[in-house]
Structure formats: C-alpha cells, structure tokens
Design goal:
By secondary structure, this protein is α+β, with helices and mostly antiparallel strands. Helices cover about 45% and strands about 15% of the residues.
C-alpha cells in the first residue's frame, strides 16, 4: 500500500495493547557469564553447607549449571569429578581456607579459550572504563581478543551493548569488532520499518513500509481508531511494527492488539 499523506491523526488511547519489545527481553543470570562475585558466592555457599538447589536459587541458575561450575573449581591435582561428585569433592577441598580454587578455575577456563577475571582485573576494567582507555590497549594488556573483552565489560554493566562500548573505547582497525561496526552502520543506513495489521474490517491484511518507527506508528494510529459507543460493532485487530534490513535476520519488533469500530 502507498503511504497516505501525513495528517493530524488521533493516537490510539484507552486501549490495552499488550506491547512487547522482543529486543528488550531481560536475561536472567542463568543465561549470563559468571562474574568474580558469582564465583565467590558459590564458594561461600559450599563452605556454608548449602545444597545444590539452594545455590541454584541464590544464584538464579539451574542445578546443572551449579554442578558444571563446581567441576571447574576443582584443582587439577585433585580427583576429577562430574555431577554431584564434583560438588562433594569441591566442598571437601574448600574446608581448607587456602584451597586454590581461583587458580584452578583460571586453568579450566584457559582450556576453553576463556579468561578468568579476578577481582583485581575487575577493578582495573572499571578504572579503564572511567578513563576511556582504548579497547585495543586493554585487549593487549589482558591478552584477550576484543569480542571477549566487550563481553566482560557488558557483564560488569560498564556498557549496555557493543555499540556503546565501541563508541567510547574504539576498536582495532580491520579487526572483528571493526567489521561488525561497519556492518552495523551499513545496516542502519538501509533499515526500514514494516507495519503489519491483521483484522481491519475493510482491509483484513495491511502491510506498508516506512523510513522510521515513528512514521509507521503514525499510520498505525491513523488506521486503528478505537470503537466508540456510536459504532455498529467492534473487531479485535492485531498490529506489528518491525525493523528490517537487507541481509540481516531479525530486528526490533513491537506488537499489540486493539479493538476498532466496524
């Protein structure tokens, strides 16, 4: 459908739209990296005699995730174990206040190409963020690649997303993050917003393309006029506004349902 000329149109009000923004779904800890504080909480809980289920509830993770993490904290010279046995072995080792669980974790993560971020590392990252130390310098200092460093900065809440971090700290020219940055810029330049409406009495399926989310919302409000007491009937209509870019899958999506006059 061709976009009709802009007009002063009423905003859909007084209607529960049940809007959902699928790009803003909150992630719980069970989907997040383990921070130094989480590791310490696990160790303290085991020393206090908490069960796996209690630790899972406290850390907002699954019991399986607790057991898997415990296995990584068992020193290499101790009996290697899985499942509940790993919990029992680690709990016994932690009776020793000098149990080298941190070094064991560092070695275990190194086998997976990951870095263990100590409390001192965390403090350094926080101060580097405040001082806007360039990302390439930090990557060299910690001997990690830029994507892993960005992930750690995000897990510490120092940046909401990659864009914010790269805008503040930059990135190495020609690297993986630089490629992502340029692709993102290309995507933003080609981004369009698609308005879809299903259930309109005179036009059961409406689809239109717009240069911005605001433009799409303007037409949505123009088409979705709430039913009034003078109407002859009413219909439930579903709408969706989604961003789309050539060559990219997914995007920001907002949707809802309203009642319109028939």
């Amino acid at each position: 459908m061709v976009r009709r000329p802009s007009v002063v149109s009423p905003t859909v009000i007084g209607v529960e739209t049940e809007e959902s923004n699928h790009t803003a779904v909150a992630h719980r800890h069970r989907n997040a990296d383990w921070t130094n504080a989480h590791n310490q909480q696990l160790v303290d809980g085991l020393r206090a005699g908490l069960t796996v289920d209690q630790l899972a509830a406290d850390l907002d993770r699954t019991p399986g995730a607790i057991r898997s993490r415990a296995k990584l904290l068992v020193p290499p010279d101790a009996p290697r174990a899985r499942g509940q046995y790993a919990i029992d072995v680690l709990r016994e080792l932690l009776d020793d206040p000098d149990c080298p669980w941190e070094s064991a974790l560092a070695e275990s993560l190194k086998d997976f190409g990951r870095r263990y971020w100590s409390a001192a590392d965390t403090e350094r990252l926080r101060s580097a963020w405040d001082a806007a130390v360039p990302l390439p310098e930090l990557a060299e200092e910690f001997d990690v690649d830029e994507p892993q460093l960005i992930r750690q900065l995000m897990s510490l809440g120092l940046g909401r997303n990659r864009t914010e971090i790269v805008d503040r700290l930059g990135c190495a020219p020609g690297g993986q993050v630089d490629l992502w940055r340029r692709l993102t810029a290309d995507r933003a330049a080609a981004e369009v917003w698609v308005l879809t409406i299903h259930g309109l009495p005179a036009e059961p399926a409406h689809v239109s393309v717009h240069p911005s989310a605001e433009d799409a919302a303007s037409l949505r409000d123009e088409l979705l006029v709430p039913a009034t007491t003078t109407g002859t009937g009413a219909a439930s209509v579903w709408w969706c506004i989604a961003s789309r870019s050539p060559g990219f899958v997914g995007g920001e999506t907002t949707s809802g349902r309203v009642t319109v006059s028939t």
